[in-house]
Specification:
Layout (H helix, E strand, L loop, with lengths): L39 H23 L31 E3 L2 E3 L5 H15 L7 H11 L2 H15 L2 H6 L13 E16 L3 E15 L8 E13 L4 E10 L13 H10 L8
Antiparallel strand pairs: 1-2, 3-4, 4-5, 5-6
Helix pairs in contact: 3-4
């Protein structure tokens, strides 16, 4: 399985070019909320809950050891770093074909590589033949790149697939619309590790669709986890195989969808990141 279908856009593992495109039940750019508005009582409960949590947090932070009269917290009882806090080394400083490269030969290096490769493989550049070839040859090991290239070329050139996502036959959006395809990693984890091979899970959300007032495929979000088997080539981590599954999917909040103009502006103004653990 490869990244042509990793965002839930297309299944080309069986070379059929069949696609699946997820669309919202209602047009989010029409201004209608995704869910019924939050009731006054619910909003009040939320505010009260936040206040209670803040008071509890302040009280806990200021609490000393009442039994001994010592106001300092013993080092052994101080809270440890949360698993969701940023940890590890700084992002790499080098890039190959615009993609971060030269990751450390460590588990953290493999996680960073997997996250950055997921971003590249989920980008809009994958819909451009020349750029797609460049990305695949950069992130995959040489023995895997050729097979992935062939499968992806068939998927991304499928007229049915391109029509379903609202693109023209050459992979470009209709005039006046902006094509959005972006992966935003939420976390990574090492599943297994050997000296020169590491398997990494990357949990991420995707933004995919066409932003524009006339769009019939508005930008929506989805959640996936991709598993990458990475091989150490002597100088960097490269993908030898990968697969994807849905979720975990968080519960959506009661937020009104942005207008097409706001979405287009955000995509154009907010750049991506170099991810590192």
């Amino acid at each position: 399985m490869s990244h042509g279908d990793e965002q839930g856009y297309s299944d080309y593992g069986d070379d059929t070019g069949h696609t699946r495109t997820r669309l919202p039940d209602h047009d989010p750019y029409g201004g209608a909320p995704r869910r019924p508005g939050r009731s006054p009582s619910r909003g009040l409960i939320t505010v009260v809950g936040v206040v209670v949590l803040l008071i509890a947090a302040i009280a806990f932070a200021n609490r000393g050891d009442q039994s001994s009269g010592n106001t300092s917290t013993p080092k052994s009882s101080r809270p440890h770093t949360s698993p969701t806090s940023p940890t590890g080394t700084h992002p790499v400083q080098t890039k190959t074909n615009g993609i971060p490269s030269n990751f450390a030969h460590t588990g953290q290096g493999a996680e960073s590589a997997a996250a950055n490769y997921a971003v590249a493989l989920g980008s809009a550049d994958m819909f451009d033949t020349a750029k797609r070839h460049e990305i695949v040859n950069t992130v995959y090991a040489s023995e895997a790149a050729a097979a992935r290239q062939s499968a992806m070329d068939r998927a991304y050139s499928s007229r049915e697939f391109l029509a379903n996502v609202g693109l023209t036959q050459d992979g470009t959006p209709p005039k006046g619309q902006l094509f959005v395809s972006r992966v935003v990693p939420a976390g990574t984890k090492v599943v297994s590790s050997k000296e020169d091979e590491t398997t990494v899970d990357v949990w991420y959300t995707t933004l995919f669709g066409l932003s524009g007032n006339a769009s019939k495929n508005p930008v929506t979000e989805s959640w996936y986890t991709s598993t990458y088997v990475l091989k150490w080539t002597g100088s960097d981590w490269k993908i030898t195989s990968d697969q994807q599954k849905d979720g975990p999917v968080p519960l959506g909040r009661d937020q009104r969808a942005s207008t097409a103009d706001d979405m287009t502006k955000a995509v154009e103004e907010y750049g991506g990141f170099t991810y590192a653990r």
